[in-house]
Amino acid sequence: MSNIYTPQQQRVLLITSLIVIAGFIIYGLSGYISAFLGAGILYVVLRPWFTALAIKRNWNRSLVTSILIVFSVVVIIMPFLTLSLLLIDRIQYYSQHTQDILNLVKKAEELTGYKITSQQNIQTLLRQGGTYASRLLPSLAGSTLDFIVILGLMLFTMYFMFVQQEAFQKGLQKYLPFKRDTQKELGESLKNNVNANVLGQALVSLVQGILTGLTLWIFGVPDSLFWGTVAFFMAFIPVLGTPIIWAPAGLIQLSQGNTAQGVGILVVGAVVIINIDNLLRIMLARRMGDIHPLITLAGIVLGVPIFGILGLVVGPLLLSYFIVLIQVFERENKKQEKEVAVAEGKVESAVEKSKHK
């Protein structure tokens, strides 16, 4: 019995079916997209080690991958989770005990002579900040089961990305709708973004967080460990960064009559912490991928509301991919225009030859 659909209709229905099924899959896994993004990021970060041990030295792949998974959990995931939980706990505390912040605002207003905003607005902002931080950063308080599933899915995905690395890469090359050169450009962009916004930025943020925490501790600011942790996260944001932490701390010390401490915090922040930031960024940009600060800043604004803390990497990556694809589109258009011009030139020369004959 013959099929009622023509070959063209079958092709259209096949593509439609794939799109519909893919839509259901993406919708069903949308709550766990961070697991796959995290697995991809860790894959790029740890791949040089995997290559050195499993490919060049021929170590057992499963053993090397297991070691890398344990390393990522102990050295990357757990410390980051601890910092996140500490930060969330303190933000939620201040959002519920707004009087401490209001007292500091009053002192700042007395020092500057300007009214910053109403107390009601400050209380609202603090509550909103506590809620936003709870959504942004990974928290066991939200849903322990979801966190375990996301963590397990991320590590499980990363395991097979390493163990079946060749099959994974061949699959990408086969099914991505780009030419081989474009795929290489996208891969290079991914590598540069991960190096710049994960390895490089994490190192810069760690140094700045430690320097900020030490500076506040030396000059007698309470909760210096907490504010150093906040500075670590704030340092991921270009331009703003740690001045959000040490500048108000210095002004508050001045408002309390602690002139030496206040001036000391501001001087160390403006002379040491900012310059260390600029120096490290210049040094690391040459080694870990040079990403323009505007792309990083705009990418963070784009990515964080959508992907949470992973948006610090995914947002700039999306913008970089957009720029790469525009460049590829421009290059392909110019190439096509040249090919058309050459073809037209050949036709015109053939016509001229035929006329002379």
Automatic annotation (TrEMBL):
Any one annotated GO CC term: membrane
- Where mainly located? membrane
Task: Name the membrane topology term.
Answer: Multi-pass membrane protein
List membrane-spanning regions.
12-29, 67-88, 140-162, 198-219, 225-247, 259-276, 296-329
Q: Which residues form a coiled coil?
A: 326-353
Q: Can you say where in the cell this protein is located?
A: Membrane
Superkingdom to which the source organism belongs: Bacteria
Tell me which InterPro entries the record gives. Answer: AI-2E-like
Which Pfam families does the entry link to? AI-2E_transport (PF01594)
Alphabetically list the UniProt keywords.
Coiled coil, Membrane, Transmembrane, Transmembrane helix
Provide the family line.
Belongs to the autoinducer-2 exporter (AI-2E) (TC 2.A.86) family.
In its UniProt entry, what is this protein called? Answer: AI-2E family transporter
Origin species, per record, is: Spirosoma foliorum
